[in-house]
Fold this protein.
Amino acid sequence: AQKITQTQPGMFVQEKEAVTLDCTYDTSDPSYGLFWYKQPSSGEMIFLIYQGSYDQQNATEGRYSLNFQKARKSANLVISASQLGDSAMYFCAMRPDQTGANNLFFGTGTRLTVIP
Amino acid sequence: DAGVTQSPTHLIKTRGQQVTLRCSPISGHKSVSWYQQVLGQGPQFIFQYYEKEERGRGNFPDRFSARQFPNYSSELNVNALLLGDSALYLCASTPIAGRGETQYFGPGTRLLVL
């Protein structure tokens, strides 16, 4: 069974500061992908960053980076230089590669609020 | 290029009714997945379709069904609606159904069952 845990229901960060959103996962699959999505109040899930389980380096996409610690089964999202527009729900998700379907398993999310 | 589109944006139904939600994938994408997001939770996988065939099904009752058309658009049908079916229904598309594909989501349909 797959499980994604996001232990921070809400986080606050000062504008221009960095923030880390935590994500741990549990899977018996040897190969998997890890994703972070942003969900503004409009509802659309916006893809931010992807990390493959066999990738040697941590993924980065602009101000987003993923702190991947495979042995600890954690995939924390780091947002640098926070902006007011970063205020939203953030979801960590995993896709096990063994299954035939391309389905994602999501955590319960973290609500990030950026303070001016 | 247009992203994933979904219709309608909002819908109100009563218990026992049936509902059909629609999704058009990104141009060139052939796989569509459906997710249900109940308030306060992350999305849960319902179905994946690729080339008009079901490629995966989540843990949902048979009241939920879907299909994909030759133009790769998709419909999600829910029969005998329950109050618990109230949720945001998200559609996502990928170019193919392969493991390495990132899913791109539409804005969702908000369903309220009274």
In short: The CA atoms of residues 4 and 25 of chain A lie 4 Å apart. Chain A has a mean pLDDT of 94.
